[in-house]
Amino acid sequence: MALERTLSIVKPDGVQKNLIGEVYRRFEQAGLKIVAARMMHLSLAQAEGFYAVHRERPFFKDLTKYMSSGPVIVQVLEGENAVAKNRELMGATDPKKADKGTIRGDLAASIEENVAHGSDSAENAKIEIAYFFAAADICPRTR
Ligand code: IDP
């Protein structure tokens, strides 16, 4: 199995509801390591740039407004199959469809305010990590 990295964000609703520790606990218990982290309040332009692939979607305006509405914490997770493992931990986009025991199933309020973002492929993870972090910001664990 491949050691991978993925980009994760605790979204504004997650930070607002004091869920950073709860989300990090789930990452760590699943064996994912946080190798970079940064708290920031995205500008609208930064949110639009990050979600550029969704610019034609009907929810783009609301999504970027929401993502720039308050602080987020952005992290790089490292581990075996980190991309898929993080998606599993998050659950389905819509919390109504997300399994119990997942971040969104347990903690999210709506399809938009769904607590966490996670890259959906290894290829996108590389692009998304580079959107927020320079190579020197990543702190790999020595074993
Ligand atoms: P994902 O975050 O599970 O990968 P995407 O389809 O990539 O889901 O959508 C990105 C984000 O856009 C979602 O996490 C959610 O915040 C928001 N979103 C997705 N679909 C809708 C919708 O139908 N209405 C409002 N917001 C949505």
From TrEMBL:
<keyword id="KW-0067">ATP-binding</keyword>
<feature type="binding site">
    <location>
        <position position="59"/>
    </location>
    <ligand>
        <name>ATP</name>
    </ligand>
</feature>
<feature type="active site" description="Pros-phosphohistidine intermediate">
    <location>
        <position position="117"/>
    </location>
</feature>
<dbReference type="Pfam" id="PF00334">
    <property type="entry name" value="NDK"/>
</dbReference>
<feature type="domain" description="Nucleoside diphosphate kinase-like">
    <location>
        <begin position="3"/>
        <end position="140"/>
    </location>
</feature>
<dbReference type="GO" id="GO:0005524">
    <property type="term" value="F:ATP binding"/>
</dbReference>
<comment type="similarity">
    <text>Belongs to the NDK family.</text>
</comment>
<dbReference type="GO" id="GO:0006183">
    <property type="term" value="P:GTP biosynthetic process"/>
</dbReference>
<feature type="binding site">
    <location>
        <position position="11"/>
    </location>
    <ligand>
        <name>ATP</name>
    </ligand>
</feature>
<keyword id="KW-0418">Kinase</keyword>
<dbReference type="InterPro" id="IPR036850">
    <property type="entry name" value="NDK-like_dom_sf"/>
</dbReference>
<dbReference type="GO" id="GO:0005737">
    <property type="term" value="C:cytoplasm"/>
</dbReference>
<dbReference type="InterPro" id="IPR001564">
    <property type="entry name" value="Nucleoside_diP_kinase"/>
</dbReference>
<feature type="binding site">
    <location>
        <position position="114"/>
    </location>
    <ligand>
        <name>ATP</name>
    </ligand>
</feature>
<keyword id="KW-0808">Transferase</keyword>
<protein>
    <recommendedName>
        <fullName>Nucleoside diphosphate kinase</fullName>
        <ecNumber>2.7.4.6</ecNumber>
    </recommendedName>
</protein>
<keyword id="KW-0460">Magnesium</keyword>
<dbReference type="GO" id="GO:0006228">
    <property type="term" value="P:UTP biosynthetic process"/>
</dbReference>
<comment type="function">
    <text>Major role in the synthesis of nucleoside triphosphates other than ATP. The ATP gamma phosphate is transferred to the NDP beta phosphate via a ping-pong mechanism, using a phosphorylated active-site intermediate.</text>
</comment>
<keyword id="KW-0963">Cytoplasm</keyword>
<feature type="binding site">
    <location>
        <position position="93"/>
    </location>
    <ligand>
        <name>ATP</name>
    </ligand>
</feature>
<dbReference type="GO" id="GO:0006241">
    <property type="term" value="P:CTP biosynthetic process"/>
</dbReference>
<keyword id="KW-0479">Metal-binding</keyword>
<dbReference type="GO" id="GO:0004550">
    <property type="term" value="F:nucleoside diphosphate kinase activity"/>
</dbReference>
<keyword id="KW-0597">Phosphoprotein</keyword>
<feature type="binding site">
    <location>
        <position position="87"/>
    </location>
    <ligand>
        <name>ATP</name>
    </ligand>
</feature>
<dbReference type="InterPro" id="IPR034907">
    <property type="entry name" value="NDK-like_dom"/>
</dbReference>
<dbReference type="GO" id="GO:0046872">
    <property type="term" value="F:metal ion binding"/>
</dbReference>
<feature type="binding site">
    <location>
        <position position="104"/>
    </location>
    <ligand>
        <name>ATP</name>
    </ligand>
</feature>
<comment type="subunit">
    <text>Homotetramer.</text>
</comment>
<keyword id="KW-0547">Nucleotide-binding</keyword>
<keyword id="KW-0546">Nucleotide metabolism</keyword>
